[in-house]
Amino acid sequence: MNENKRVSLAVFGFVVVAVVFAVLGIYGFGRISAEAYASDVEVAGSQLEVATAESVGLDSRRLSRIDSVVNDYLREGAFPGAVVGVLRDGKVVYRKSFGYRETLGNRVAMTVDTRFDLASLTKPIAVATSVMQLVERGKISLGDRVDKYIPGFRGWAVAKDGGAKPTKADTVYIRIADLLTHTSGLPPYVMPKSIVAANPDAKLPDADAVIRYIATCDRRAVARTERIYSCLNYITLAHIVELVSGETINEYAAHNIFEPLEMTKTCYLPTAEYALQCAPTGKSSDGECYRGVVHDPLAREGMGGVSGNAGLFSTLDDLMVYAAMLLNGGSLNGAEILSKLSVDAIMSRPLGYEEFDRTLGWENFAACSQTGGDLFSRRTIGHTGATGTSIVIDPELNIAVIVLTNYVHSTTKRTLLDFRSKISTVVAASVRW
Of 245, 263, 294, which closes a domain? Predict the structure, then answer.
């Protein structure tokens, strides 16, 4: 081979190698950059003790498989970033961030202290907890009819034989427990424009107009005959909390839950400073992402950001504190939030509601979400949020799993049901004793 040919081959080889490395740089390195960012397990200023997995009966090797599950979904584009925390016996054993908090424009790495729009996690954490406190204090009873608090709140008039007009005696009324377990028969949702159509004088946000709509809208089923997951149930419950306590749900929950537990990063209506650390969600009409503004249209436009169905913002560490409180029987570090029997009630299907897969505010191995995975105990409760959030609590194993993602920016729009289920299963599989 002459010198010119050798030179030509060398140049060609160099170009091939350069192209390969360029491709790796675009695809391989880009993909690697979305992998887990190492997060210090030490929780600065946290009320919760940090422990090794082995010290609380978990296998750290098995627990570390969370990393690969999350990274698989990151590579697929299911979400740009996530944070995951695992708690056992009131101690933090896993706490990591993955991928990116922001991907539109400049990429910003996800961090464990990122603040999230919790979406429907608002329902159990803020609303159901508040309602159970008022039940404990003798202010509300689970069997109370809703029209005791909201006059004119419609029930379902059951048709009589022979086509005779139903009377009040034939009406099945909606009760507090029905709202908590999504067995009221209320429709799942209503868009703000429908509120205005039904109340032409309404100028949204208008919480009173929303409540008037819910009180009189068509029901989908007779109460206590069917489970229909409904945001309207929890908007109604939050309104009842306000009527009974004299405080809006954001005020009541702050004074009676978050402040006593020192959940300092949990709130409605985040400040501009708080919003800087939020994972943004969907885009507004002007093309800007919602950052520190609730994503849910009914909560944002109809209720002005303070709602029973959505509106709460929080962090991984604060949610682990909340979960530790429940697993500790309703109190933590001297703060008594709920009684032991209230927590027991929250973690059990109410008498007469066993067929509906719901407890007082939570799912209980509901087939529609599978948050408990395949191995947690049958007493496991959980809840999800449409923005990509979830919390799972197993009282028998004394374990909580919190997963927070920016799913709204998914590039695949695949469901997160299997992802949440796999994370729970991996954690449960790490149990040694």
Answer: 245
Residue 101 in any domain: the answer is yes
Please choose, from the candidates 345, 349, 417, 421, the residue with its C-alpha nearest in 3D space to the C-alpha of residue 388: 417
How far from 267 is each of 119, 168, 270, CA to CA, in Å?
A: 12, 42, 6
**In terms of Cα–Cα distance, which of 275, 280, 267 is closest to 407?**
280
Do 341 and 326 contact (CB within 8 A), yes or no?
A: no
313, β-bridge pairs: 117, 267
| Residue 394 within any structural domain of the chain | yes
The domain in which residue 146 lies consists of 142-245
Residue 213 lies in a domain: yes
DSSP letter at 35? Answer: S
E strand or H helix that includes residue 394: strand 389-394
The per-residue b/e assignment along 245-284, b for 16 or more CB within 10 angstroms, e otherwise, is: beebbbebbbebbbebbbbebbbbebeeeeeebbbbbeee
Is the pLDDT at 341 greater than 60, yes or no?
yes
Exposed (0-12), middle (13-18) or buried (19+): which is 115, by Cβ within 10 Å? Answer: buried
CB 371 within 8 A of CB 424: yes
Does residue 265 sit in helix, strand or coil? coil
**Coil, strand, or helix at residue 227?**
coil
In a domain, 301, yes or no: yes
Closest CA to 263 of 193, 327, 337, 191: 337
Number of domains in the chain: 2
Are residues 269 and 237 part of one domain? no
Could you give the 3-state DSSP secondary structure of residue 234? helix
Phi/psi at 405 (nearest 5 deg)?
Answer: -130, 165
Looking at the fold, whether 226 and 271 belong to one and the same domain comes out as no
Co-location of 298 and 383 in the same domain:
yes
Per-residue pLDDT tens over the stretch 147-174: 999 999 999 987 656 665 656 666 999 9
Asked if residue 325 lies in contact with residue 332, where contact means CB atoms within 8 angstroms, the answer is yes
Give Cα 22 distance to the centre of its chain. 40
* 171 and 157 Cβ atoms separated by less than 8 Å: yes
The reported pTM is 0.89
Q: Where are the beta strands (DSSP E) in 259-387?
A: 313-314, 331-332, 335-336, 381-385
Q: Please say whether the beta carbons of 175 and 223 come within 8 A.
A: yes
Q: Tell me what pLDDT residue 18 has.
A: 38
Chain mean position to CA 310: 9
Cα 240–Cα 266–Cα 98 angle in degrees, nearest 5: 130
User: Residue 65's CB: how many other CB atoms inside 10 A?
Assistant: 17
Quick: pLDDT tens for 8-31.
444 344 333 333 333 333 333 233
